[in-house]
Every structure is written in C-alpha cells, then in structure tokens.
Amino acid sequence: MPILVRDATDHDLPAILAIHNDAILNGTAIWSTQPVDLDNRRAVIEDRRAKSYPFLIADRDGEVAGYASFSDFRPHDGFFKTVEHSIYIHQDHQRVGVGSRLMPPLIAAARAGGKHVMVGGIDATNAASLAFHARYGFVETGRMPAVGFKFGRYLDLVWMQKILDDA
Predict the structure, then answer these.
(1) In this structure, what is the dihedral angle of CA atoms 54, 32, 77, 130, given to the nearest 10 degrees?
(2) φ, ψ of residue 82 in degrees (nearest 5)
(3) DSSP reduced 3-state for 46
(4) Pick from 55, 122, 125, 132: CA 20 to 30 A from residue 142's CA?
(5) Range 54-72 average pLDDT
C-alpha cells in the first residue's frame, strides 16, 4: 500500500485524536495520563499553521496511518532556531515505513523555515524510536533519569537532536 504524505485537514481530526489518545492511554511516547478532545487537537493544528509549521499526515490507503509536526522548543526567544518534533503512528500501521515517510518532509520543512536544530524527547525504553532517530542523523545529547512517571514507574528521558544546517 502506498503511503501519501500531506497536510492535515479538519477531516483528519478524529483519526489524529484516536492516535494521540492511544499514545496517552497505552504508551510512554506522551507523558500525559488524560486523553484530550477534538478541540485540543484542532487548537494544536491551528497553532502550528499560525506559525507556518507543518502538521503532516501519512495517508495509507485512505486511512490516517500517522502524523508528524514540530513546535517551538521553548518559549524564550533565544530558542527561536530550535524546534521539537513529534511523530505518532497508528498501532495498525507501525513498522511498515510510515515514520520513514513522515520524517524527511518534516526535516525539510524545518530547514526551509530557517531552523538550526530539531530535537526529540524519547522514553529511554523505546529502542525502536531511538534507532529510528539515529537513522536520520539524530544523536543523543542528554539523558535525564526518572524525570517522568507513568503506569506506576519512573521514566527516563533521552534527548536527541539533529543539526539542520552548517551555520
């Protein structure tokens, strides 16, 4: 099945919400415990659009198989050249190349927007995500033991980053 990457539309919101809430309720990619609603996801997409940041969808045979975006890394103006990205894949579409279709255009959009660094915060036990990021040139730059807590246990955060330009 071909995977088409495109901008998210309002029509995609229910699928985006389902993927996001599944990550909250069943995984450690998002360190929240409370599901969100459609208005929350709509607001996130509108915020990205207002900043000319992408919110991409991986469409696999008419289904939203995953999504990717980035946001400001920190609110202070000294970080304006750095973005933090997120990629989430529907559980039925994992390990079939969806993430590999989403990452290149996400990196390209950050470069086109004049960003210098892209970072990702990853649960230290998520070996697949750590390896995926390494394949795209992200390097581990920090480890923060026991800074998160979910499912009755402490979680370690791994920071990975990719320099996007030579400056």
Answers:
(1) -70
(2) -120, 135
(3) helix
(4) 55
(5) 97
Is residue 167 pLDDT above 60, yes or no?
no
- For the chain, first and last CA: distance in Å? 39
Give CA separation, 103 vs 10, 70, 130, 131, in Å. Answer: 22, 11, 14, 13
Domain annotation for the chain: domains and CATH numbers? 3-163 (3.40.630.30)
pLDDT in tens, 101-160: 999 999 999 999 999 999 999 999 999 999 999 999 999 999 999 999 999 999 999 999
Among candidate residues 144, 143, 125, 121, the one with its CA nearest the CA of residue 133: 121
Q: In degrees to the nearest 10, what's the CA dihedral of 7, 9, 15, 20? A: 60
Report the distance separating Cα 150 and Cα 27, nearest Å: 9
Question: pLDDT, tens digit, for every residue of 22-38?
Answer: 999 999 999 999 999 99
Give 153's contacts (C-beta < 8 A, 6+ positions apart): none
